[in-house]
Amino acid sequence: MSFLIEKFLEYVKVDTTSNANSASCPSTEIQFDLANIIVKDLELLGLKDISLDENGYIMATLPSNCNENIPTIGFIAHIDTAPSFNGTSVNPRIIENYSGEDIVLNSKDNIIMSLKDFPELSSYAGQNLIVTDGTTLLGADDKAGIVEILTAIKYLNEHPEIKHGTIKIGFTPDEEIGRGANHFDVEKFGAEFAYTVDGGELGELEYENFNAASVKVKITGRNIHPGSSKNKMINSILIGMELNSLLPVDQRPEYTEHYEGFFLLTDIKGDVEHTEMEYIIRDHSMEKFNTKKNLMTSSIEFLENKYPDARIKIEIKDSYYNMKEKIEPVYHIIELAKKSMEDVGVVPKIKPIRGGTDGARLSFKGLPCPNIFTGGHNFHGKFEYISVQSMEKAVQVIVKIIQNLSK
Ligand SMILES: [Zn+2]
After folding, report:
1. Which pTM was predicted?
2. Within 13 Å of residue 270, how many CA atoms lie on the same side as its CB?
3. How far apart are the first and last CA of the chain?
4. How many Cβ atoms are within 10 Å of 93's Cβ, its own excluded?
5. Catalytic residue set
């Protein structure tokens, strides 16, 4: 078995589920289990300046092997897997020479990955797929990214004729709970730019993501015995429902795609006296993002005027921004990734991310950081799978990026 697949199967079996309810960093101690294994592998690969800090961040350097003046480049992936699905006791299976038909993940529980639900499966006929046993996620997100980076380094070690500049490697904890960039020391990392290897299907190349904000609304009404509440009761639940009715119905996640942003009511709880609501707001366009935030505030103002005896409090907090504005001034790093994909026979698929990445926040911390594919599908669930051939292509793309940069 190849190093790439052997390491992948080893890594996915180590539980690294993160936990949004934990305040520590890493959010779960178990992330160190894999981090320690990775550090040993980095040592075996002969990397320099290997560090694993108390927050669970790994950094390492492959020094330049020539005297040319080549920009320092970085590759980043994340150690944790999503808490939204079981990541304990992952039991991966390789399907060699996939037939292109429905895949029975678990015959006992009758868990089937069907072409009807996942039509793109048919395009993988003849390839080798790695799937779950239907009881856990796979963890290709993002252990595939880690092993693809390591395999690219191994390839460079075995091919000293490939001249390259300094290469930095960073593996972060807690990406899945939005904290992967929190303690990432951009200065220590020391790269001019980097790529997160954390995307999905073959060819994905992403440098646009949402602008994101979270909204908390607290409404205080007035509870009075319903038998004697005429002209006195103020029902905070109903004000909350009215607030929601003031937001455009067509701008909800279930009705939007591509560059369309949305409002999402993520939580509501209330009684007559008190109601609390939580929303998230998303839009790729900064202008439309601000318009959405303004609509939220003006809707609250309207309700305050309509119900002067109610108290309505709103708190809007920006979460992250679209990295596009940080990538466009260094667009050559997109061109570099695009050309490198084409050079190894991969068709680049540039599309906006309908979410955020650690790379977005790193870009705002001074490390421009687009995202490239790992080859996986259906992240964060039992139908997660990855094509071995796509993983091999990801390795080739990483090597080619490094090679093309030194030209
Ligand atoms: Zn990921």
Report:
1. 0.90
2. 24
3. 33
4. 15
5. 80, 175
